[in-house]
Amino acid sequence: MNEEYDVIVLGTGLKECIISGLLSVDGLKVLHMDRNGYYGGESASLNLTQLYEQFRGGAEPPKELGANRDFNVDLVPKFMMANGKLVKALVHTDVTKYLEFKAVDGSYVFKQQKIFKVPSNDAEALKSPLMGLFEKRRARSFFIYVQDYELDEPKTHKGHDLTKMTMAELFKKFGLEEGTIDFIGHALALHRDDSYLAQPALPTVMAIKLYKDSMARFDTGSPYIYPLYGLGELPQAFARLSAVYGGTYMLNTPDAEVVYDEAGVACGVSHGGQTAKCKMVVGDPGYFPEKVKKVSQVVRAICFMDHPIPNTSDSYSAQIILPQKQLNRQSDIYVLSCSFAHNVAGKNTWIASVCTTVETSDPESELGPGLALLGSIKEKFVKVSDVFAPKEDGQTDKCFISCGYDATTHFETTMVDVLDMYTRITGKVLDLTEKDPSQIEGQ
Predict the structure, then answer these.
(1) What's the domain range around 28?
(2) Where are the transmembrane segments (predicted)?
(3) In total, how many domains does the chain have?
(4) CA-CA distance, 14 to 233, in Å (whole number)?
(5) pLDDT per position as a tens digit, 209-230
(6) Is 224 inside any structural domain?
(7) Residue 359: what pLDDT?
(8) Residue 220 counted as domain residue
(9) Cα separation, 212 vs 222, whole angstroms
(10) 409 and 341, same structural domain?
(11) Are 278 and 142 within one domain?
(12) Phi and psi for 10 in degrees, rounded to 5?
């Protein structure tokens, strides 16, 4: 513990493990510590015993659920966009060799009390029951425009400057109805509210292209992939990467505390009466209570079922997005399911998650529209989590703090935070375009 490190990382959540891996690859000397005895922190995958410890005060799991070892239950369930930033980070670091993935079966959107498959291109738009005949034609024209759009080829822009034109104006050009705009903005571009409509159209068009490109990777009807044995495999894979490049790991350090010099700059971490010195500290908000602010709350329900989610073509895995306007809310509700097919549950067991940003004083009731889609539920675990963000960027006190995990069921917003942290820490922008993400295989 008396050694000096370039960086000490606190917490083994996915964000912290990615940063630890990236900094180790960059040649920095990294010490990584966690209060817990397992990897993953807030984003861990738990077995049945750990799950019942956390949610049921250590009660014995019912025998009929199956063997403890068969369960890897994600505390913050999310899927990965097949061509998204997390997959690119996995490929960039060669962490893919430690993991196996399975393509997600279906991507759906909720409209007028029904579930519909999300169309992602012009051909699917023409077949979709989401829209009437004339709207299908307009949507097809919009999708063709997006599919053909290339940043560096002005002729594909058709006279539209998407850096200045708002997304609302672009939708208006194609005459799209509110319901169509709803599913494009929330189920394809994955926006969490409607503020994007007043912003330049380019990021939304690129997000729709990402969805379509990810769809093209696997012929499953969804742009998402998911690691076998649960999301807890991801932080462990990045931890392994860090160790390969000389990173040191210490779990079970409940008394780990940041030490500051007279100027209030982080200079080390104390544990067991000793202090390890460092040039900077990286960690999750739980290690820096004075340096973070609460920005929202997320409510999540984890449900065990003996059947797939109804109306999802008997899928072993699926995502359903319930756009805010369909529910008279300010934020979307997200539903996600995976199953024994992904080695995360016992035989013939599905695990569904319903989550949203808290808007009322009765968070659990806000999950109602999502829970209503699941059918019969055998077990339900509900947790309300505060989401924290750092008050400052870390340049002054050398404390680089991650944000908490939002309600989304994909990793795009998670990776925005990781890449922003990496830039704040190193002063460099991480180039994830060097390698082709198609080397990741989905089963």
Answers:
(1) 4-56+230-291+389-439
(2) none
(3) 3
(4) 9
(5) 999 889 888 777 789 999 999 9
(6) no
(7) 97
(8) no
(9) 9
(10) no
(11) no
(12) -110, 125
- 424 with 372, same domain? no
User: Is residue 349 a contact partner of residue 306, using CB atoms and an 8 Å limit?
Assistant: yes
Phi, psi angle pair for 104, to nearest 5°:
-80, 140
Flag whether pLDDT at 84 surpasses 70: yes
pLDDT in tens, 263-306: 999 999 999 889 999 999 999 999 999 999 999 999 999 999 99
CATH number for the domain including 156?
Answer: 1.10.405.10
What average pLDDT does range 381-392 have in this prediction?
A: 96
Helix (H) or strand (E) holding 351: strand 350-357
**DSSP output for 339-376:** EGGGTSSSTT-EEEEEEEE--SS-HHHHTHHHHTTS--
Percentage with pLDDT > 90 across the chain: 79
Tokens of 151: 């940043």
Other beta carbons less than 10 A from residue 410's beta carbon: 23
- Whether residue 71 lies inside any domain: the answer is no
Average pLDDT over residues 76-103: 91
| Terminal-to-terminal C-alpha distance of the chain | 43
User: CA–CA separation, 33 vs 252, rounded Å?
Assistant: 8
Backbone CA torsion sign across 384, 422, 239, 223 = positive
Tell whether 242 and 122 lie within a shared domain: no
Q: Which residue has the tokens 């494009």?
A: 184
